[in-house]
Design goal:
The chain is mostly helical. 70% of the residues lie in helices and 0% in strands. The two termini are 37 Å apart.
Length: 227
């Protein structure tokens, strides 16, 4: 696919926007459940047998609470993945429409819609830049909704916390952290939850702005045909 060759047409965005909002709601609920179980682990405290990972490759059998957290963590990861897919489908549709409406190529080439989230350092600004570019081309002259900055700030807080979205520890390691310093885990979860809520509002705001512009463009087209 080449952004200089492909000429996409305007496509409806309400359906993919609803899916993206639903994805954020689902992911937010999953992170609430994750935080709740981390608090339960902190209140219960580690069992007399110690932490799940006992060193030297030895792992003791999980307690019922720990086993439940494994399940909730796995479901949360699945919900986050579904949310990411729905959001990217929406973003790509919005990006294509923004190009048609503005007559200008996107500021970032299409691979960055995916790579921008995972390439170190670059992922600190490129995804937000893509969203901002979509808004500027969809609604030229209109102020960027403040919720975009709230969403991105909370996303970065969750991503850079070391215990939020981008942690690399095993689930047993996270359980150990919940026993020792649950407040940091819950703080990271709160940032992720805030990003999910703000993300839903970002989708709604940008979709509404683009729909308004699309309606204006369609009206102009109908007037031109009637002449």
């Amino acid at each position: 696919m080449n952004d200089d060759i492909t000429q996409p047409t305007l496509r409806p965005v309400r359906g993919v926007a609803r899916c993206a909002v639903a994805g954020f709601v689902l992911a937010g609920a999953a992170w609430v459940a994750r935080a709740a179980w981390q608090v339960r682990l902190a209140v219960a405290g580690p069992p007399p047998s110690g932490l799940p990972d006992q060193g030297d490759g030895r792992h003791r059998p999980l307690t019922g609470l720990e086993d439940a957290y494994h399940i909730i963590s796995a479901l949360g990861d699945a919900a986050t993945l579904l949310c990411a897919v729905a959001f990217l489908v929406w973003l790509l549709r919005m990006r294509d429409n923004a190009r048609v409406l503005s007559g200008q190529a996107p500021h970032y080439a299409w691979p960055w819609v995916y790579a921008g989230w995972i390439v170190p350092v670059v992922n600190l600004w490129v995804p937000r830049g893509i969203v901002v570019d979509v808004h500027q081309k969809s609604a030229p002259g209109e102020r960027l909704p403040r919720v975009v900055n709230w969403w991105w700030g909370l996303w970065l807080a969750g991503m850079l916390s070391g215990v939020g979205l981008m942690y690399t520890d095993s689930t047993d390691d996270i359980i150990a952290r919940a026993y020792m310093d649950a407040q940091f885990l819950v703080a990271a979860d709160t940032a992720v939850l805030g990003a999910a809520v703000a993300g839903a509002f970002v989708v709604r705001a940008l979709t509404a702005a683009q729909q308004k512009r699309m309606g204006t463009a369609e009206n102009h087209g109908e007037r031109a045909l009637s002449r």
